[in-house]
Amino acid sequence: GESVGLHLPTLSVQEGDNSIINCAYSNSASDYFIWYKQESGKGPQFIIDIRSNMDKRQGQRVTVLLNKTVKHLSLQIAATQPGDSAVYFCAVNSKGNKLVFGAGTILRVKS
Amino acid sequence: EPEVTQTPSHQVTQMGQEVILRCVPISNHLYFYWYRQILGQKVEFLVSFYNNEISEKSEIFDDQFSVERPDGSNFTLKIRSTKLEDSAMYFCASSEWFSNQPQHFGDGTRLSIL
To answer: Which residues are CB-contacts of A22 (< 8 A; sequence separation ≥ 6)?
Structure first.
């Protein structure tokens, strides 16, 4: 079956620095990828998505990069702020439009 | 901004009892989902639902689980005879369309089985 994993369980960055959160996936047939942010006591909040026909997509302060050759996905957050502190999950689509989630990376922003 | 709402936020139930978790998906969304997250673990897919039918379900979603859209706005998850291992956060999600569309999540119901 599919698996989605993260390289770093915890990332600490200084306020104002850029953050990069990585994710690997196993199913080469996956064609849709999403990043979610989860704050304590809340549900996963949609950040940005990317389809397999793209290798880069930008949003407000966030960029997602997709490397299908090595089955790797990354989320870049520019000028990280204290409000960015949360757990970040990548998720990939699978049969029946179910999402397969990664384990999550804790992002801590130091002021 | 429209959002998915879930009630209750916390449900405490005795083992063996039935529990119903409720969700109001985003109004123009057609696809609905339940996921769960055991403390400290990944978010896991349970079931997807469209047009009053289950589209896909995971191996977790056994005969003790059922879903229903009893009216035009609510989407429910029922667990008939709860077990200790059912303790988790249960998230409802909805999407506008089926394929390659973001799923929007509610803030979850924390289910505690005693």
So the answer is: A6, A7, A8, A72, A73, A74, A105
CATH number of the domain encompassing residue B18: 2.60.40.10
Domain count, chain B: 1
- Residues of chain A with Cβ-Cβ distance to B56 below 8 Å are 95-98
> Coil, strand or helix: which one is A11?
strand
From chain B, the residues in CB contact with A27 under 8 A are none
- HSE-CB at B53 with a 13 A cutoff on CA atoms is 3
**Smallest Cβ distance to A98: which of B48, B107, B108?**
B48
Which residue of chain B comes nearest to A37, CA vs CA?
B105
| Residue A6 pLDDT grade (very low, low, confident, very high; cuts 50, 70, 90) | very low
User: Would you kindly state where each structural domain of chain A is located, as residue ranges?
Assistant: 4-110
Range of the structural domain that residue B31 is part of:
5-113
Quick: pLDDT tens for A33-57: 999 999 998 999 999 999 999 999 9
Segment B19-76, tens digit of pLDDT: 999 999 999 999 999 999 998 788 999 999 999 999 999 999 999 999 999 888 899 9
- What CATH number is given for A4-110 in this structure? 2.60.40.10
Q: How far apart are CA A108 and CA A65, in angstroms?
A: 21
Query: Strand order of the sheet with strand A56-58?
Result: A4-5, A19-25, A72-77, A62-67, A56-58
Nearest CA in chain A to B100: A32
